[in-house]
Amino acid sequence: MEHTKYLVVGSSHAALEAVTAIRMHDAEGSLTLLTRDPYLPYSPTVLPYVVSGRSAATGIFLRDEKFFVDNRVQLKRGTELKALHAERNSAELADGSEIAYEKLLLATGAAPAIPPIPGIDQVSYHVLRTLDDAKKLHAAIKQSKQAVVLGAGLVGMHAAENLVKAGANVTIVEMAKQLTDGYFDQVAAQMIEKAFTDNGARILTGSRVVKLAPSAIGSALTLENGTTLEADLLLVATGIKPNMDYLDQAGSAVEHDQGILVSDTMQTSVANVWAAGDCAQAKGFFTEAKVMNAILPDATEQGRIAGMAMAGDPGLKHYPGGVPLNTYHFFGRHAISVGSSKLADGAEVLTRFDDASGRYLKAIFKDGRLLGIFGVNEFFDGGVMCQLILRRVDLSAVKERFVANPLAVGRELMSQLWR
Amino acid sequence: MGRSYNTIAFDAAKCDGCGDCMTACATAKTGSEDQTRSRIQIVGSADDGFELALCRQCGDPKCVTVCPAAALTKSTESGVIEWDAAKCVDCLLCTIGCAYASIALDAGTGHVAKCDTCDGAPACVPACPHDALTYITTARIYNEVGDWEDLFAPGLAGCQGCNTELLMRHTLRRVGPDTVLATPPGCVPGMGSVGFNGTTGTKIPVFHPLLTNTAAMLAGIKRQYKRVGREVNALAIAGDGGASDVGFQSLSGAAERNEQILFMVVDNEGYMNTGMQRSSCTPYGAWTSTTPIGKGSDGMPAQGKTQDAKNLPLIMVNHRCEYVATASTAYMEDLYDKLDKAIEASKVGFAYLHVYSPCTTGWRFPTDQNIEVARKAVETNFVMLWEYTPGAGLQFTRPVDDPLPVTEYLKAMGRFRHLSPDQISHIQGKVVENLAFVKQMVHQARA
Known about the structure:
The complex is a heterodimer of chains A (419) and B (447).
Chain A: E1 2-9, H1 13-25, E2 31-34, H2 47-52, H3 65-70, E3 73-76, E4 81-85, E5 90-93, E6 98-106, E7 110-112, H4 131-143, E8 146-150, H5 154-165, E9 169-173, H6 186-198, E10 202-204, E11 209-214, E12 219-223, E13 228-231, E14 233-236, E15 240-242, H7 245-249, E16 260-261, E17 273-275, E18 280-283, E19 290-291, H8 296-311, E20 325-330, E21 333-339, E22 348-354, E23 359-366, E24 369-376, H9 382-390, H10 399-404, H11 406-417
Parallel strand pairs in A: 1-2, 1-6, 2-3, 6-17, 8-9, 8-14, 9-10, 16-18
Antiparallel strand pairs in A: 4-5, 5-6, 7-15, 11-12, 12-13, 18-19, 20-21, 21-24, 22-23, 23-24
Chain B: E1 7-10, H1 20-30, E2 41-45, E3 49-53, H2 62-65, E4 72-74, E5 81-83, H3 93-97, E6 103-106, E7 111-114, H4 124-127, E8 133-136, H5 139-146, H6 163-175, E9 179-182, H7 187-190, E10 206-207, H8 214-227, E11 233-239, H9 240-244, H10 248-256, E12 262-267, E13 293-297, E14 300-303, H11 312-317, E15 323-328, H12 332-345, E16 351-356, H13 360-363, H14 370-379, E17 386-389, E18 393-396, H15 407-410, H16 421-446
Parallel strand pairs in B: 9-10, 9-11, 11-12, 12-16, 15-16
Antiparallel strand pairs in B: 1-8, 2-3, 4-5, 6-7, 13-14, 15-17, 17-18
Helix pairs in contact in B: 8-10
């Protein structure tokens, strides 16, 4: 049986950061990286830009072959983990072969969650999670005249904008009462909605698809209120679910809930196995409960911690807990969200909105500490804001100034606190 | 091997917030004088002190790791984090990754912008009217030297934080493998040059002369090599004790005969290897194990060394050697320049290089402060960096026009902790006197 000291499964941000962290501390230990993807590593986050054509499908790779050679990493592409036999430190691959490991990182990411709509198995639809998905969608968008996007998260909204710009009639169907729910608040969502409707898109929030069926041009959708829609292109972007089927295949003892449950050093409930990124369920910064925080910056943070823990790096620092961080560009405008949008008891909300410039800012404080800050067309340093939150800096004395100019006041605080 | 990189350094104490650097950057990068578009941002205030929001070109850059589009990469050549406009998708995730506000949205273009050091000629640096910004280019030396073979054993028995390891490794790399090395008793053999268990600590021939005959033995070996037609560098790395005290007779003789050798003195101002006894290079007032602090005898309290240090490099100037220089590891560009000149000079005659080398153990300061102590010695004019050749005479290589008070140097270490105000004023007086003396020699050279 093949044997490796470190086995990393997955090839996106969490996995790559873990590889870097391992190599910083252990330059020699054998390291194998498996990915079911046939391509070099890339980020799911860049795929909407492949769909739009802004990013060349050949120019998005995060590492080249030389990186793996230089770092003495055995890269196995097109290789899927089928079952984990943690009790004997062995990973079973799709072809039936096994790799014995000393330390294993599960950074297997997530896949589109397909809602159980009656008839969904009868129609053809697009999803967007892999480069192949993006290439197919990129080709289909050019042909589409009448498209429906299910789900108004960031993946769905990006694709909808691409479809609008390509000249299709686009309808966005979202179950929640607002767009980008969980990322941006109602005011921001209304600004986003207005940008889309101004550009000709149709938005159906608070709507649920109850039936799908094939039609002459593609598929026919029936909504809860009886409305029917037809689509020559249907994109299902209703969320993601972690890839962790391999845990159940062999009845592995690795504890999992919505995702793979991990400690503050990204260790699973089982010896020698760590998990990081979109497949992991780790402590939230604002709650002791373990949460899914499937965002890119958190994946890198978790990957780094997991790699350091696996290599036994004494510089390891415990995970502070996930902070939601998102940026979003729509029709030439940008929105940034850092921190929690949930209103804790006793929280104070300060907002300002300038109709003329379309600038919107909202900040949430509790006991003088920043919990979250959100802006549309209002640029501030997200990294600085994140530090203010993580360090629980008392902003009581500067709160008003801070909300008036978060860019300047944030930098001023940075210069005093952590330079 | 890892690379060293040039960097833009900021001295907050010199900044008055005038913003000229921001105007220069905005002009160079955007063609406008709009300071908000500058990639170097002065933040803070005169009350709280100024700081910069400027890309640090991190070794482990967060902005790069969170970029989904592979648009940011750290150049292994220049160390600069490069932004690829063709790959960037304007997602702004890098601005969330960076905790230092060093990559931000440029409203004028709609893209992020960050410092690229203007390809090694940063526009902000010459624009600063107060010299608060400097472009440090010392990296070139470390990269160049790092590519040469390290001729010293990987493990050493030196004290933690010892300056001498830096000197030995750099010097041997520079002189190269065609070298015979003499290391008389002192810290250099003590920490490993002569080796252990029958193998030397160097990859070049090394010998261990007596304190008294180092220069004489080395001169003889050099002459024998010349006789058989081999061109080799003859190098001594000796301590100040071995050079200025018992070894002085043979050193002076070799210099007088203009032997073709390079004699480097690592001046840590005492016999540190054998237990920190005083030497003739130990400065006035310093504690050593033989110049103790205490009640003393015959009503005379012991207050450290009661004599001033011998100025050995000036004595060597009076031998009219081919080359004499003083150097400090706090100023590596200067040291390297002098090392190059000393090697060349040693091909025709006697070359003498005196390196002031703080000793963390004997001088009583924390092990991470060695270079800082060395720098303070120069900034206070306690030691002066100069060079001498018979043709050009004596010249300052790094004159200090506005020296710090000598107390800034003295308080950096424990060996001076006991000093009385009288002793401090004696030392400050000596600094002034020594400076005047060297200036007079510089003046004579110009005349």
